[in-house]
Amino acid sequence: MKRTDYWIILLIIALCGLFYWRLFTFNDADALSFTDIDFTTIFTPWTSYSVERFHDGELPLWNPYMYGGTPFMADPQSAVFYPIRWLTITALALDSDITNGDVLFALQGEMLLHVVAGALFMYAFLRQRFPPLPSFIGALIWTFAGFMTSYPPAQLSILESSIWIPLVLLGIHRMRGVGGNVNWRWVMAGGVFFGLGILAGHPQISMMIAYLAAAYLIRSM
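The chain above was modelled as a monomer; its predicted structure follows.
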């Protein structure tokens, strides 16, 4: 990478933090939070339940608090198998006296982490074909346009599945090695990125990623 790339990466991180700063300020007059949406009515209590089970050394197989009881781990949107969710749950489970407010704050941090990661992933993908400035503009459009700033941050599984799109495409883009040979490392990397998108928990987005990846693969052949 060039020095310009490092400055752009720092700028992308700063812009994402600036956009969502009111979720993390300790000044009550400026603070905002997700309320009365799936983020707080579904994902926060689900994560609280996962933390409770992990703290007790159990897997959250069954959710006894919804309807007459429902499968929990089998619900893809619970994201029990998603590695980044493990970090959030583990960090919270270390404290035996957490509140729903703590869980909400941690999930908002997880959301911001994915926004930043998605922006950087898109920049990395675009840099395969374009100079720094167009790649930077493309990453900003991806990150701050209507889709990524509307429903996905509130519907956490959509956001966390969507951010892997650029890396899946990057894996396909780089799979062609020298002399037209297949670079299997990038094939496997693209598969891992696609798998992470699936584990993030939104089947419809995963299906759309598969369609997009197939189209990009056909175009790249």
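The two ends are 27 Å apart (CA to CA).
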